[in-house]
UniProtKB/TrEMBL annotation:
The keyword Ion transport does not apply. NCBIfam families: PRK05872.1. It comes from Streptomyces iakyrus. Gene3D superfamilies: NAD(P)-binding Rossmann-like Domain. This is SDR family oxidoreductase. Keywords: Oxidoreductase. Pfam families: adh_short. It comes from the Bacteria.
Amino acid sequence: MSESPGSGRPREAVGSPLAGRVAVVTGAARGVGAALARRLSDAGMLVALIGREEATLRRAADSLPGRSLCVETDVTDREALHRAAREISEDLGEASVVVANAGIATGGPFVHTPADLWQRVIDVNLTGSANTARAFLPHLTHTRGYFLQIASTAAFGSSPLMSAYCASKAGVESFALALRGEVEPDGVGVGIAYLHWTGTDMITGVDDHPVLQALRRNQPRFARTVHSTAEVSEWLTSGITRRARHIYAPPWLRWCQPLRPVFPTLVSRLARRELRRQPPSRVAVDTGVLGAGGRADIDAYQATTRLSGPDRP
């Protein structure tokens, strides 16, 4: 655990309804999580950053203008998350905003994806979100706070060669919808954020696979735009301030909701066409874990698994 005192309340925080409250962001070492932590700190929040890469996490926390705390924690570890919740409560106070952002992805054909890697994506993205909610709901109940689940347009229409990621993002959307109905009577708001192409290291490997590349290429030009993490964090912060039930990043995604029933058919048809065009050896290319954050999680997970295995002294 590492604490950064910050440099006082930022100028942008004056008059902000978020000022002085506590926010928790998982997956905050890099990408959207780090950018959102910065934006919430700019709004005057005390920010707790949870992530897997301690050094990277500390750098992200040290860069914030306000007071912050970073806790190196695996969101699949329920006990560790409960310890983190207690530490945050003691050092910063009870959370008013919790963002379940931690996520990893793997690309490639299902049959060529190792079962433990496929399962790890589900564990981090879906079970990790539920673990986060379980650990921090006592905070949010006391503060009548807001839980934001980071989902994706992968929940709109599942893409071949991204089965674990798409399954996990459809799962977190369903989880958040169910949770909303349970906790709203207690004054806790639940929002779902749908992110499209965002400039994180997770998407750097997407175009390495021919079918994924084709799926992206066949989208309308405006839909292929990659938005910066700064843009996305601004949209998310605006939604958090309003306790929005749905946040779309970019905003035009809201108009896709009525069209969702047709997306799976369109994506499947396009994918079949592209798969037929490619030789089997090319389609079998396994892009593996996407992004530095995902690789850091897998490396840490595999190291822990080896240490806890039957050969441990």
